[in-house]
Hints:
This is 6-phosphogluconolactonase. It is built from seven helices and ten strands.
Amino acid sequence: MxxxxxxxxxxxxxxxxxxxxxxxxxxxxxxxxxxxxxxxxVAISGGSTPKRTFELLANASERYExxxxxxxxxxxFVDERTVPPTDKDSNYRMTKETLLEHVPLKPEQxxxxxxxxxxxxxxxxxxxxxxxxFKLEGAxxxxxxxxxxxxxxxxxxxxxxxxxxAIHELAKIVxxxxxxxxxxxxITLTWPVINAAxxxxxxxxxxxxxxxxHMVLLGEYxxxxxxxxxxxxxxxxxxxLLDKDAAAKLPAVGADGVGRLExxx
Length: 265
C-alpha cells in the first residue's frame, strides 16, 4: 500500500546559515519534547555540517547553549564507523570534541556505539542499550523524539548504503552493515527505527548532493540505489534543511524559503 510523505524543505544560502537553522531546529524540537514528555531522546549523525551545528550549540556566546535543557537529554547515535572512539573518523570523537566537552551533559546521558568492537557485537550491545534505556519489551520499536540524518553523494543515509544488507533489515533495532564499496563495516540504526521517530530531519549541503537529492525525492523508487528513499516517517512528515546547492534541482521555494512536496511511494 502506497504511503504519502509530506516533505517540507527549507533552503539556505550557505553552510553558515544551514548550520544555524539546524541549531534552531534542535533547540525548538528538544524543548518541545521536554515540555511534552519530560525529556528528549535524541539521535545524531556525523559529518561536516553537524559539526558546525554542534559548535554553535556549544558556544557560550550563543543562546542555544543557555536555553537548551541539557539535563533532560538522552543522546544516542544514528551510526558509527568501526573505529575506536579516539580515531579521527569516529562520529563519537567529533561529537565529543565539538559538543560534549563544552556542555553540561553527564556521561550517563550519552550512549555511544562501540566502534572498536567486532561489528556484530557492537550492534547487539547497542541494541541492548537502547532496549534498556527505552524499557522495550519483545518486538517494540524505540521512538526517538528527535533524529537527525545526513545524506551522502551516493544517496546513503545513516549507514544504509546502496546495495547492502541493512537495506533489507526489518527486525533489528541496530545492525552491523558490511559496505563493500568502502571495504569496511558500519554500525547503524535500521530504517524502521528511524521512521518511528517523532521528528526526523535531514541536514544536506553541497553541489555533490544536487543530483542524488533530486533522485531521492523526484526519481523512480529504487531503494537499492537510493537508500534515503527508505526514510518515510510514520508521522507522515519529513523536514529537510538544505543549502541552495543541494536544492538546485528541486522545485523553487516560495518567498519564505520553504518548498513542499507530496511524495507517494
